[in-house]
Design a protein that fits this description.
Blueprint (H helix, E strand, L loop, with lengths): L1 E5 L12 E5 L12 E5 L6 E10 L2 E5 L9 H4 L7 E9 L3 H29 L13 H5 L5 E2 L2 E2 H22 L2 H29 L4 H22 L3 E4 L7
Parallel strand pairs: 1-9
Antiparallel strand pairs: 1-2, 2-6, 3-4, 3-6, 4-5, 7-8
């Protein structure tokens, strides 16, 4: 789960506004001294981000890196393992979510260009040049039975797919409504599954690859990954107590 740091008790390691990925599952593998964990304050059950400074049979001692701005085991004593929510496994820049939101329409636009090009070539009968790279043969891939669904070119379906994601992505940037995140995640999930299938077909059925198809698949997978991170990063505040709360 993603959390946003609020406070200064873990500076300079994690500053105010830092976005952290905290996993509860890792706790099952064990914790050790110097790990940074999210634990519940034994007094009022508020979440606190602290570093483990000692482990004993009686409990776990935690402390903030910025000791002058931290309320920790020096005040409320030891915490028990069952009160540990999770351990920090990754830090994201505070601008990560905003950057990913911007990437969605950009990636969709690139995918639209790619699919529109293949669609145009399909209907005009023009040659698609993929270069002389071994294993790359656009003619085999684009001329196979797998290049159409009920007589509709996959390139055309891809064009509609990327256009839809582009429009919803632009609206999401303006509205910032989570309903658009859900719509985008659903759409890109379909695109992700379709991309995996088409890569399988190229690799194990046709034994040939299409450069433009691989580019489209890569874009589709990046879109899905971006939306997955955005959807999961519903940030929660981590309370860092200061001296005034001691």
């Amino acid at each position: 789960m993603f959390y946003r740091v609020s406070g200064r008790s873990m500076e300079p390691t994690y500053g105010d506004g830092s976005v952290l990925l905290i996993s509860k599952g890792i706790i099952k593998l064990g914790i050790k001294r110097e790990d940074v964990i999210l634990a519940l304050d034994p007094r009022d059950k508020r979440p606190l981000l602290k570093r483990i400074v000692g482990i004993s049979g009686e409990g776990i001692s935690i402390e903030g890196d910025n000791v002058n701005e931290s309320t920790d085991s020096r005040v409320f004593g030891l915490v028990q393992k069952e009160n540990i929510i999770g351990k920090v496994i990754l830090e994201f820049p505070s601008s990560t979510k905003k950057w990913l939101r911007m990437m969605v329409p950009i990636l969709a636009f690139l995918g639209l260009i790619d699919s529109a090009y293949l669609t145009m070539k399909h209907f005009t009968g023009g040659e698609v040049s993929c270069g002389a790279i071994p294993g790359i043969n656009c003619d085999i891939v684009l001329g196979s039975m797998y290049s159409e669904v009920f007589g509709i070119p996959l390139a055309l379906l891809g064009t509609f797919y990327y256009l839809t994601v582009l429009v919803i992505g632009i609206v999401y940037l303006k509205k910032q409504d989570n309903i658009f995140v859900k719509l985008l995640l659903m759409a890109t999930s379909i695109g992700f599954i379709a991309s995996l299938y088409l890569i399988y077909v190229q690799a194990l059925v046709l034994n040939a690859y299409c450069t433009f198809c691989l580019i489209s698949a890569s874009i589709s997978m990046l879109l899905f990954a971006s939306l997955l991170v955005i959807a999961l990063s519903k940030e929660k505040n981590i309370i860092h107590e200061s001296n005034e709360n001691k």
